[in-house]
Amino acid sequence: MIQQTIPSPIAFVPASGKPGQLFVLLHGKSANPEQLEPLTQAIKLSFPQALIVLPYGSFAEGEGAYSWLEQAGLDEDNYIERVRGALPALIAYIQKVQAKYDLTGEHTAMAGFDQGATIALEATLEQPNLAGRVLAFSGNYSKLPGSAPVATTLHLLHGADDPLIPVNDIRSLHGHLADLQGDATLDIASRVGHEMHEALVRQAINRLQTCIPLRSWQAALSGLKQEEKAAPDVDPHLDFLRNAKPGPTVH
Length: 251
What we know:
globular; Rossmann fold; 36% helix; two-stranded antiparallel sheet; 251 residues
């Protein structure tokens, strides 16, 4: 059997100026970056200063198909181990890109579909400052996490009719993350299966543009409390900030 070379990541850079954000998009099992074309185009349109990179999975399967985990012999006993084994190289690559363009985890969002979603979720748990956002399309952790990522907002996007990962599993995950004081949103598209559906892509962009991370609320409220201690006579116009709480989509 001839060992196939994994292609270099596809990269899209801003038309002019320095990148202001980094998006790392991870395709699903037995696929390639073309699978994420709708999401790629949506990000280009909504974030014109973003650098977008789309790596190929580490294992070639022939005819342009790649996976993040070696599929031969994959079973329940070695699944978690293989997921963990896929993380170091990807994390190192993302950190290299961040350093090259002087970007931090707060400037970085990861998105993945299917197996790529699992890798994105697990990577930010393994490396807490890797990305400020994760968009997980039709994917789940390899196992329920014992803690939630402290520096990452998770956006779970799922089809109600997904035959591979039941939507109730994702509802349970969302509830579990809430119990762990994690910052996560959940969007379910009716009459949608295991696919990168346009409705979910639109909602992902909406989440990126409108959802304020819980850590930002906490930092703002903490700052206001410190100001109140130093100067009790706070401008009453700031009351809405002092008493503000995250909306229903921030948990």
